[in-house]
């Protein structure tokens, strides 16, 4: 069809002067002078937006939001991730193929490298810990491996040599008697070659590669102590050494790459999202015996707040949940391609034929009393993504640390162990409570107060 001229590729400038119909109904019914017809209406969407199930039923900004969050979701980023030494990446333990998916998912081979897992989701207010955008998680599901992931970070050290320079770098074992060390670094985990060995546990500031700068003798011919410039892990790092690679770069310099792995189990504060821009952080986890259940004993993995639906108008989220429920009952994957024309009546009819309420609502029972809950709950499987925003990477506190020489105030930034800013709004809140001594302590005594000796002239 391409050779015969039935299919034509248009660039952005050509589209400006073209009148394109999205489907055959527009072409025949509107009686307008169209110049082209889309192969499929979903082709008007980009790669990320085209895989959103029933995306045509969502509010536009939610699809834009998911297009960004889909790139933050944990997945199998490649089939050879185990031998790659990327700077950092997350790998989901048990990714799954969605029960309801867009046709575009096959074209980009996303079914071979899924970006999430199917979980049983209930939309309900329960215990008050899922207010706003917080969600409840089933702790028993987490312990069975639900949404568990592995995080990898690679550190690189290069033994550089500069021509016509009296000093040189060398990767070696650190001898504290012969090397000038200015901090309390731990060199005990290094091997004889100065490099940490695989499977060694790593915590913050652990030395991974021992390296020194060796200087030429001074003018009088005296030997100078080598300077310690060893590679250390980040302050917040924790895990085990996964891989150590020793090689040379294009300039012939020795290069060492060390990959650290750490297991990341879902916990309070971690961020999750459906494929419809319905993102939220875990507000509380409950064991399965403390979560509501239906008449078949099925317990939800996730409970989200019902107030997230009316204002955001992500109707595609609800249709996906119904379609996934039908797919789990019939064993046939649901077609959730945008603009495909999937009928809600057909989904409801199949649900009803399989013995369920046609709108997806179910009677659940209170786990604390065993009594039936007052209202029916919208209940069924939905595909969820685990995003890379984890509480372990964001949690931070400081009791004392470095200060700036100019202002004598704490440095700024988590990576340099800086302080947390006490701003204008925080000051106003403290003032409104009348706690002046606490205000003085925060803004002066634990910030830039210092004492200096003065001589009376």
TrEMBL record:
Tell me the domain of life.
Answer: Eukaryota
The species this protein was found in: Pseudocohnilembus persalinus (Ciliate)
Q: What is this protein called?
A: DNA-directed RNA polymerase
InterPro entries, from UniProt?
Answer: DNA-dir_RNA_pol_su2, DNA-dir_RNAP_su2_dom, DNA-dir_RNAP_su2_hyb_sf, RNA_pol_bsu_CS, RNA_pol_Rpb2_5, RNA_pol_Rpb2_7, RNA_pol_RPB2_OB-fold
UniProt-listed Pfam families:
RNA_pol_Rpb2_5, RNA_pol_Rpb2_6, RNA_pol_Rpb2_7
* Entry keyword Transit peptide: no
Q: Which UniProt keywords apply?
A: DNA-directed RNA polymerase, Metal-binding, Nucleotidyltransferase, Transcription, Transferase
Give this protein's Gene Ontology molecular function annotations.
DNA binding; DNA-directed RNA polymerase activity; metal ion binding; ribonucleoside binding
